[in-house]
Automatic annotation (TrEMBL), chain A:
This is Acyl carrier protein. InterPro entries: ACP-like_sf (IPR036736), PP-bd_ACP (IPR009081). Transmembrane segments: none annotated. Residues 1-78 form the Carrier domain.
TrEMBL record, chain B:
It comes from the Bacteria. This is UDP-glucuronosyltransferase. It comes from Paenibacillus tritici.
Amino acid sequence: MQQKVIEIIAEIKEEPGLLQTLSGASDLTLDAALDSLQIINFILRVEDEFNVEVDFDTFDLEHLKSVDRFSAYVAGLAVQ
Amino acid sequence: MNNTVTILCSGFGLGFYVPGLLMERKFTALGIQAEIEVFESLMPDSKKKRTDDNRKAYQQSFAVALTSQKIPSDIRSSLDPAAVERLFRQWKQEQRQHFIVLSGHWVHVMDRYREIAGMPVYADLLYIDADLSPSWKNLRKLNPGYAEGYREVSMYDPAAREILYSIDAEPAEPLPAAARNGRLVVHGGGWGIGTFREKFDALESAGYELDIAAYSVQEIGQAVRGRRYYMNDPQWRTWQRDSNGKYTFPPFAEVTGTGAGSFPPSRNYQDGMYGVIRQASAVISKPGGGALIDSLASGTPLVLLDPFGPHEKINSDLWVELGYGIRYGDWAGSGYDYDELRKLSDNLRSARGQYPDYTSSYAELLSAAEGRR
């Protein structure tokens, strides 16, 4: 999932180079530099890709602190 | 001591702005000084531009707009500390003590002001939706006890299916169904979001003539018989004051596809879209807090489109349960029956005067408190 999440970030940012520079530890707002609109489009793509629905009550800004944390959150949604 | 009531609005949507202006007018009529502040005036230009960019994206895609509500945010990072300090200096100098807060964003600012004011500060947190809208939900996530020391006031009690307060708009008397023009107003709230644009053809095929809110000249196509477009000045922003330093209703005009002319200032609320709404047989829109206030004040029923988030879903349910609105799908199922609209309009007229005006109630409390001092 981590690799797919990075692919979606690179797609949203239109920066293929991010495939090489981002890792599981990368922060989505600092390292990947997703702005607020890009985060929205990122979430939409993730929901579509993994067939999950992000929920305000469970989603937290902390989940954007790393690709790994975000992936774990999405994996948690997928098993519900 | 200063009895000025400071009304803290937000430009996120007109629903968090226009009610503040209506209250300011009412306070003035009641002989009480009132001042408006708009949250975005405390944001640096870069953040204001981002707000504009977001609005355009939300207009273009309802899915993007809805998804924005799933992502928590901390609005404090958008504040300009110097602008906040300037405001605090002014408030302290003028000994401002009485506040009405329409957006959860402002509570961060009020918390700080209460610490430094050096005098008691009284603030109502006024919920203009039937459930917490995003600014309040974000605040609650950051500070679950945010309401401590404030007076929470809900306009609606959805569990009891009740309206607790209304907000008056002039002219006071709604038109009876028979005196209306039979037209339908179709809009997407202050930001032009939702599914309203998909409905034009079906409504016109059912024989209705439409008064449509446009949000750019580009979205006005070829002239269609019986169809009119109206627009708020697209250059106008809620955080702009006029030459007298006052916040205003949006400049407004009927527009055509050949281009927007001038947008004269709206000195009164009825000079804008509200003046069109109060003559129409129904409004087709998402169930925003502003749409509910307009519906109740003008006696115009709502045909309810998809809600912009869970709070608007509760707005929608409430309006249906009270008999003041009908879900679009249900109305379409009736064959777009005009009699359905007339019944809803009659219900609204029958309810006239049932719900206390929030501003008048606040003014009474203020006078009573003054009497005790």
